[in-house]
Amino acid sequence: QVAKQLAAAPDLLLTDLVMPEMSGLELADPLHKQWPHLAVVYTSGYTDHALFERNTLRQEMPFLQKPYMPDAMLEQVAATLGNNGRANAFGQERETESAESFATQEV
User: Which letter does DSSP use for residue 106 in this model?
Assistant: First the structure.
């Protein structure tokens, strides 16, 4: 519902993979259909191994293990947004601005 009210397309979605009412993949799917270039960073308190076994996480998906320090989150976000041909919500490659241009933008 919040996404429908946005004036501009978001650059990034940071979402937990395991939530009470839907998974992070279920959240990202309609948003990715609305904004095909949306980058996503997934996070979870579950280990990446457990998420791979549950077929919730794929190797190419940007993932941040909880708990994490703010620097680790910023590094993952910058890597996801600054990746030449950065990955979208499902690990598929896409074209984007350089990491240098991302680093100079105000957040």
Answer: -
Q: List, in order, residues 6 or more apart from 88 with CB less than 8 Å away.
A: 32, 36, 37, 38, 39, 40, 94
- Burial string for 50-82 (b: 16+ CB within 10 Å, else e) reads ebeeeebbeeebbbbeeeeeeeeeeebbeebbb
Which candidate, 8, 15, 1, places its Cα nearest to that of 89?
15
Q: How many CB atoms lie under 10 A from the CB of residue 100? A: 8
Give Cβ neighbours of residue 74 (< 8 Å, ≥ 6 apart).
none
pLDDT of residue 92: 52
d(CA 70, CA 36): 27
pLDDT tens per residue, range 9-51:
999 999 998 889 988 889 999 998 999 999 999 998 887 776 7
